Amino acid sequence: MSASTPRPAHGAGSSWDTPEAVERIIGAYATADVVAIRQAQIDLLGPIAGAAILDIGSGPGIYARDLALRGARVTALDSAPAMRAAALVEARTAGVAIDVADGEANALPFPDGAFDAATLVQVIEYVPDAVGALREIARVLRPGGALLVCDTDWATASWGIGDAALAERIKQAWCATKPHYDAGRRIPEWLIAAGYHVAAWEPLVLANADAVGDTFHGHTWKTYRRLLERLGTVPTDELDRFDRLCAETTAAGSFTFTVTRHGWLARTPGGTS
Ligand SMILES: C[S@@+](CC[C@H](N)C(=O)[O-])C[C@H]1O[C@@H](n2cnc3c(N)ncnc32)[C@H](O)[C@@H]1O
Fold first, then answer.
1. Which pLDDT score is estimated for 2?
2. What is the pLDDT of residue 251?
3. Which CATH number do you get for residue 113?
4. pTM of model > 0.70
């Protein structure tokens, strides 16, 4: 791909289709803060042993792996080849078998009613036609099938770094990189528009007291800084100051980062749960 060719938003050749993106997600999702949120979100599905579950936008297969470890028959779908390859490795390393599929959230390559349940985690914030994707997922679920949708409300991101105005500018620029920065709070609205019955809500705060170490923030900020640099939406001297304040407040023990992650369980009409 030449320097002038814009990257696709997802799929082959996108920023998701790189070893760096795979490594970043695996790193961030192995941190204690994110592990606790993942297990609480999966709990919303209840017992899943033997259920056929489609994990859409599976990334490197962390949710797919954990669903399979709970006994589900999992198909991990992602549009990025690097993510699908990583999902197979993740499952094999954990000693579970999963199927992997190429596909797009708005056009799933499966017949009607093929799955008992589906998961869509940290994906809908990137999907311009969110309601269309939820309708397409409903199509491949059996009547009464379950859908777990989880995403972040990036407008709730806040940094305790001793400079609230700078933290606010970083948040605004971060939100502007997303098709739906407010996906977390909009999930129930989109689910209802797509014809689901909303069944349960699990809002959780992702909280880090360390900006630079083995935390969600430590793994994720580096990537966002590069993105903001490329977009030119925050001057370099402000990004440098933000980095410096993050490091200084972490060393002083006063750094905080919080953001709300929403998990919603919904069901397609009809059938039995
Ligand atoms: C932030 S990652 C989330 C990975 C995983 N669900 C998790 O939470 O661990 C987003 C993933 O969604 C995939 N993706 C983005 N848009 C997609 C779409 N329209 N259809 C299928 N996959 C998509 C990307 O390739 C990427 O792997």
1. 46
2. 98
3. 3.40.50.150
4. yes
**Confidence bin at 7 (pLDDT 50/70/90):** confident
- Note down the domain range covering 113: 19-158+179-206+260-267
In a domain, 84, yes or no: yes
CA of 126 to the centre of ligand 1 (A): 8
Q: Number of structural domains, the chain?
A: 1
Does some domain include residue 231? no
Choose the residue to mutate in 7, 10, 152 for probing ligand 1, maximizing ligand atoms within 8 Å of C-beta. Answer: 10
**pLDDT 10s digits, 161-220:** 999 999 999 999 999 999 999 999 999 999 999 999 999 999 999 999 999 999 999 999
Pocket of ligand 1 (CB under 6 A): 10, 16, 25, 29, 57-59, 62-63, 78-80, 83, 104-105, 121-123, 126-127
DSSP string, the chain: --TTSPPPSSSTTSTTSSHHHHHHHHHHHTSHHHHHHHHHHHHTT---TT-EEEEET-TTTHHHHHHHHTT-EEEEEES-HHHHHHHHHHHHHHT---EEEE-BTTB-SS-TT-EEEEEEES-GGG-SSHHHHHHHHHHHEEEEEEEEEEEEEEEEEEEESS-HHHHHHHHHHHHTTSTTTTHHHHHHHHHHHTTPEEEEEEEEEEEES-SSSSSHHHHHHHHHHHHHHHHT-S-HHHHHHHHHHHHHHHHHT--EEEEEEEEEEEE-SSS--
33 falls within a domain: yes
